[in-house]
Amino acid sequence: MQAHAVTTPHAPGSQSALRLRNRQAVVHALLTGGPATQADLARTTGLSNATISNIVKSLSQDGLAVTEPTTSSGRRAMSVRLQGTRAVAAGIDVGRRHVRVVLTTIGYEIIAEDSHSLPIGHSADEGIEAAARLLERLVAEAGVPRTSVIGAGVGLPGPIDRRTGTVLDGAILPAWVGTSVPDAFGERLGLDVLVDNDANLGAMAEIAWGERKDAQDLIFVKVGTGIGAGLIIDGRLHYGALGTAGEIGHTTVDPQGPFCRCGNRGCLETLASTSTMLASLAPSSTSALSTADIVRNGLDGDSATLRVIDDAGFVLGRVIATLANFVNPQVVVLGGPLAALGDVLLEPVRRGLMRHAVPVVGETTQVVTSSLGDRAEALGAASVVLRHAGLSPSLRSLLDGKHN
């Protein structure tokens, strides 16, 4: 991704203006993509290796960046990341039963995180208030000034109208439908707020924080009470016309199947969501089960749990196969609370993919579980803030090479 230039007071053709534009390009690349090798920065910005080296040295001398040994393509390299807590991003993930908040530096370091339980069916006001209190506590515990928080990213399970940031029908949080998230959160937090679907943010987290930084074509599938997909195509999130691309949970799998909350029958969500799995296991259990029980019992080899996981995983793989035939991704990443099952979930999903995908797609598409656990969506929300932070007034001094 090419860096964006910032208007400067220097004469357009002067050497000082050129140096400033180059510095801005490198800082922007590190903000939007996170830590990178000097070779990666050269490719991203189009600057020479020598220019990159000089800029990195200058940023390091200013206390704005650090370098660390790493490996790239099997070779030793030097990784560069921004540092400091003068600018901090907040990532907020609101789910059916929880809210999670993370605070990260501009160098993609996590400095604080925690979660809080929410009642099923909670209202937007309840969720926003819980998130605000949690954010304030984490800021205080991290010891950073409240003014250092440059913005908040918010993830919600369900379709979001990208034009307005409004929660649409079909969301797992029915009491939130019609809420303009940027306005409601922004008013309570006093921050600029960016909102996105949780699966989209999971996909962003994988390329910003996870093990798939080099993936240009990736599908992140969030499996929970609902099922959604975030699509990275040619290195960019694909939203569609309104921002609702990836709502695979309402793909019809069985036209004569169970009624879905969307009004149709036999949607993927009615066959493979955690709610459906829990309902299937309820008759064989003497006590109420949770998603954590599915994971624990599945890993322990409980036969009933394994059968339910196998059925759900295979039908999930079938729908992923259809999506993979269209997108032809390098990798499919399974996220959500069931990711902890590892191969227990991956095996039936891979079988479903192989059975229903075009052979070459099935054979070449990796299917893995997320390494980010239940923090993926919140991290993705924080990364969205950082990607949009390059031109914010609070970071102008950093871009211009001025620091306190």
UniProtKB/TrEMBL annotation:
SUPFAM superfamilies for this protein: Actin-like ATPase domain, Winged helix' DNA-binding domain
Gene3D superfamilies: 3.30.420.40, Winged helix-like DNA-binding domain superfamily/Winged helix DNA-binding domain (1.10.10.10)
Pfam families: MarR_2, ROK
Alphabetized GO MF terms: DNA-binding transcription factor activity
Residue ranges of domain HTH marR-type in the record: 26-76
Family: Belongs to the ROK (NagC/XylR) family.
Record's protein name: ArsR family transcriptional regulator
Native source organism of the sequence: Luteipulveratus halotolerans
